[in-house]
TrEMBL record:
InterPro entries xrefs: Adenyl_kinase_AK6, P-loop_NTPase
Oligomeric and partner information: Interacts with uS11. Not a structural component of 40S pre-ribosomes, but transiently interacts with them by binding to uS11.
Binding-site list for ATP: 10, 12-15, 100
Protein name in UniProt: Putative adenylate kinase
Uppermost EC category: transferase
Organism per entry: Methanothrix thermoacetophila (strain DSM 6194 / JCM 14653 / NBRC 101360 / PT)
Length: 173
């Protein structure tokens, strides 16, 4: 069973994926391993080769049988019918991306994307089942427990409860 773990860069996907009791495939690792279509200077990153990634994921999926396979990355929702979207208050996200050394334009692009629910909206368009977690006040371990409970079908985290733009304290730069 393929599950996308998605969200704006900096929301904590890679950190939490290391704490999950499931097999995880990191899309950025696959792109660095050669499933890239070259460097995209505008977005300051390697462009994904979507067909090569799909082929590789199918190969890994076959070896997983019926077990959960987590596809992790900010466009993972393109590769699964069920997605878990990690959310983070834009002001906290900004501080994390600054600490990462992102350029001012890349920080602004990602903070705005988070503020307007961009990845959530994409996931809702592409996937038939979507879950949403506000990680702002949670530790990585708490987020991992919630994801595990969702995938064991013990709890539900339906999307739609987050409204960052409604917070007067929001800092869009
Ligand atoms: N729940 C959390 N609480 C506090 N810091 C976190 C949490 N999750 C991740 N971080 C930190 O935020 C930064 C970005 O996390 P990362 O997992 O790389 O995000 P992503 O994979 O979504 O880009 C890292 O420095 C990480 O240590």
């Amino acid at each position: 069973m393929r599950i996308a773990l998605t969200g704006t860069p900096g929301t904590g996907k890679t950190t939490v994926s290391g704490l999950l009791p499931f097999r995880v495939v990191n899309l950025n690792d696959l792109i660095r391993d050669g499933m890239s279509a070259g460097f995209d200077p505008e977005r300051e990153c390697l462009e994904a080769d979507m067909d090569a990634l799909e082929e590789k994921i199918e190969e890994i999926e076959r070896s997983c049988g019926d077990d959960v396979l987590i596809i992790e990355g900010h466009f993972a929702h393109h590769f699964a019918d069920e997605a878990i979207v990690l959310r983070l208050h834009p002001n906290v996200l900004r501080r994390r991306l600054e600490a990462r050394g992102y350029s001012a334009s890349k920080i602004r692009e990602n903070v705005e994307a988070e503020a307007i629910d961009l990845i959530l909206v994409e996931a809702l368009e592409l996937c038939s089942r979507v879950h949403e977690i506000d990680t702002t006040d949670l530790s990585p371990e708490e987020v991992a427990s919630i994801i595990t409970a969702i995938l064991k079908r013990e709890i539900e985290m339906p999307p739609g409860g987050i409204d960052w733009l409604g917070d007067p304290e929001i800092d869009l730069g």
